[in-house]
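seq/struct pair 1
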Amino acid sequence: MKNPLILLIETATTTCSVALSENGHIIALKELNESNIHAGQITLFIEEVMLNAEKNYSDLQAVAVSMGPGSYTGLRIGVSTAKGLCYALDIPLIAIDTIEAMASGLLKSVDFPENSLLIPMIDARRMEVYTGIYRKDLSPVEAVSAKIIDDNSFREFDNYELFLFGNGSDKFKTLFSGQKNMHFLDFSTSAAHLNALALQKFNQVQFEDVAYFEPFYLKDFLITSPKKSNI
């Protein structure tokens, strides 16, 4: 299909972001980096990008959603919204790995040295992050995982220039301050970062089952009971 119009949804972190892509070009974008706004803002952001682009919902050929890992609540809201649209409009659902999308988005805006490795990070509390490692061509060196970071992490990549970014990376600046091959980049997740991967999957007809698709939480969501008071 020529000039596919794809709605892009990113809610895996504190950023609530919606974009509209036409034939691989972002034509509208609405996003806000603020905690706990996804449930109240996501449908408003969708309406705004459709209005700004002067498109009707019937014009959409697919919806792409950031599938995780990331915030349990954010992912649940983004995926349920995407599935609802796909079901109502009878269009396909495209799922994009959040960590891979971060690397893809950064590669579009930064010219990296040849011996570079990209390490996107999403905060998973304390010293743990959701992360993966990618080369400049976006091929994976390490698969996406939940990893506890310490001062021995990434030692096997001392011959590479390592670029750490995402909301999980800032807490390691002091830890790695003495390693000259470690670089920390300012970065925020965005629905626009799903663009290239979503178009690729659309053209390859790599769609999800709308009824059964679930986010990639990576870790189980644990609900803890409050401790009993001794008072």
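seq/struct pair 2
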Amino acid sequence: MIHRASRLSSRRPGFTIMELIIAMGMAMVVLAGTIVVFSTSNQAYVKQDLVVSAEQNVRSTMEIMSHELRMAGYIPMTFLSGEPDEITADVSSQGWSNGVLDRIEYASETNLTFVADTNADGILETITYALDGNTLLRKSWDWDNTARTWVSRTSGTDEVVVLAENISSLQFVYTFENGGQGQPNEADATTTNDRDDIRAVTIALTGSTRAPVTGDTYGNRRLQSYVQMRNMGLETSTH
């Protein structure tokens, strides 16, 4: 009896090598499936994050531009024609300089320069929106009434501010006093559809993702906004 019990006790339960191999194989299949699902989900999340970031970039930029363009042409009365502080110059060394202060200094399909006291602080600004490659720049100059000239901002920052990066296109389409739309034409013999006839502008802004979303393809987000320039068309003189 003792001998038989000894033999039985030596037979301990366990797994054969074949069973271990099969179990490990099944575990590897499950693990591989989990990795594939996680990787796919992570890639989808990264792509969606890139697209959302690009859309937010365009949306926030559009908000800034729309806010300022609504103020285009707002000039404090003291600077108007015939007043003691009348401005009789514009920013020097610019392609649109003509020696005369205009509410909209330059307007094209991809570039817009206007004059306004954007935050109603009594300091007049000349502001330009333009693309430099894929970077949307805002250039600004303040009117120094003592020096009687346009200068860079005195806050220590440069006059050039990056509004947004990864911008693939910027387009302006103007609405004129007569209801027509298009680009201003100062060269023709008529006095309609000129810069001073602009009453509104439609901004079309397209932003790209900062990295490809599929292969070498970048995602794009395009927003369009119609902005009425409520100060355009007002008299430029108090006399």
